[in-house]
Design a protein that fits this description.
A seven-stranded antiparallel β-sheet has the order 9-16-10-13-14-15-17, with no helix packed on it. A four-stranded antiparallel β-sheet has the order 7-6-5-8, with no helix packed on it. It has a two-stranded antiparallel sheet with strand order 1-2. It starts with a strand and ends with a strand. About 5% of the residues lie in helices and about 25% in strands. The chain contains two helices and 17 strands. It is mainly beta. It has two domains: about 5-200, Nucleic acid-binding proteins (OB fold (Dihydrolipoamide Acetyltransferase, E2P)); about 225-270, Ribosomal protein L2, domain 3.
């Protein structure tokens, strides 16, 4: 997978860098696995704006992804690798031996025609989903469950992965994409390999209009607002704005917001690096 750079024939193309989409094998999605995706525009059920800088964007359909991977009794064959407008990773349409089709997050290197499996008896190969108790130490994994049967919750975006560092009793120790090291039950499932589209972080929109296509409206800084609108607003001329903080007054950049009494603290061995 690679990225495309453009000749600067227009101002919008001067800094534009997009995916080459050379890994995509099908342009039309599988209709039975599509669901409507309604846009809120950042408004709640009363029509009041509760999230700023959201609105517009291209119409989308949601692709129903199988994050559980609990169909252990039969193998599946990869039919297509597709683009998903709702996530940064690619998705793969797989067909099981009994004829059922499902979408999964496509791992990097997954090919059309490849056979994948899930369950404790599956081989620890790319695309296969196993309990952490059955995966060799040092393996790179993604789509990791936090609780058994919950479905994949960690390492799902493009290019991400976690490393299985060790096993202690009924817990496995994982080094997550953020740099955090934490314990997860060995009965939780994970998929072998890294997530597809690793060059996603190299992309550049190039123009404001491309962000509007994604449903993101212009975002103005708190420093340029009035004091009534933001704690960092006001002042004569180009005032610095004081200590960085959110619109509600919560300090940013170094201020710890995590609850020190959070239940999950006992599972975290090393916090993420700043």
């Amino acid at each position: 997978m690679a990225v495309r750079k453009f000749k600067p024939v227009t101002p919008g193309q001067r800094n534009k860098v997009i995916s080459a989409f050379d890994d995509i094998t099908c342009k039309t999605p599988y209709k039975p696995l599509l669901e409507p995706l309604k846009k809120s525009g950042g408004r709640n059920n009363q029509g009041k704006m509760t999230m700023r800088y959201i609105g517009g964007g291209h119409k989308r359909m949601y692709r129903v992804i199988d994050f559980l991977r609990t169909k252990d009794e039969c193998t599946a064959t990869v039919m297509t690798i597709e683009y998903d407008p709702n996530r940064s990773a690619r998705i793969a349409l797989v067909q099981y031996e009994d004829g059922e089709k499902r979408y999964i997050i496509a791992p990097n290197g997954l090919k059309v025609g490849q056979v994948i499996a899930s369950g404790a008896n599956a081989a620890p190969e790319v695309g296969n989903t196993l309990p952490l108790s059955e995966i060799p130490l040092g393996t790179l994994v993604h789509n990791i469950e936090l609780r058994p049967g919950q479905g994949a919750a960690m390492a799902r975006s493009a290019g991400t992965y976690a490393q299985l560092a060790a096993r202690e009793g009924k817990h496995a120790i994982l080094r997550l994409p953020s740099g955090e090291t934490r314990m997860v039950l060995v009965s939780c499932r994970a998929t072998v390999g890294t997530v597809s589209n690793p060059d996603h972080n190299l992309e550049s929109h190039g123009k404001a209009g491309r962000r509007r296509w994604l449903g993101r409206r212009p975002r103005n800084r708190g420093v340029v607002m009035n004091p009534v609108d933001h704690p960092m607003g006001g002042g004569e001329g180009r005032a610095s704005g004081g200590h960085p903080r959110s619109r509600k007054g919560l300090p940013a950049k170094g201020y710890k917001t995590r609850n020190p009494k959070a239940t999950s603290n006992k599972f975290i061995i090393e916090r993420r690096k700043k």
